[in-house]
Design a protein that fits this description.
globular; mainly alpha
Length: about 120
């Protein structure tokens, strides 16, 4: 399962790097980069959910699933707020490039830590 999460993290990183370089390019290139990023996120979420539910007793699976969902949504809200403040404080392209650079750094941390949790 850790290979799936690392692969997903690498896809997200590749999508962010692609967005970093093509922010002023054609819409089709941006859609392709966003699609790669979304596919990678889907792989990560699926692998994390399966690993979590496989590691708890069946009687606690509802609590574990809801706790994961709560933390995932909280992280999404904080991420949108922080990246939104980056966009508001800079020119749009500079803010997007900074957000992409931060995302790639965080994804590399996820990819580095994933093999230790198998």
């Amino acid at each position: 399962m850790w290979r799936v999460s690392v692969g997903g993290a690498l896809l997200v990183g590749a999508g962010c790097l692609a967005m970093f370089g093509i922010l002023s390019a054609h819409l089709a290139a941006l859609v392709a980069a966003l699609s790669v990023t979304g596919f990678g996120i889907g792989l990560i979420v699926t692998a994390i959910t399966a690993a979590l539910l496989g590691s708890v007793d069946a009687s606690f699976s509802g609590i574990a699933s809801d706790t994961l969902t709560a933390f995932r949504r909280t992280g999404s809200v904080l991420g949108v707020a922080l990246y939104g403040s980056l966009l508001a404080s800079m020119r749009a392209t500079a803010g997007l490039r900074t957000a992409c650079a931060i995302s790639v750094g965080l994804i590399l941390v996820v990819a580095a830590l994933s093999p230790t949790t198998r």
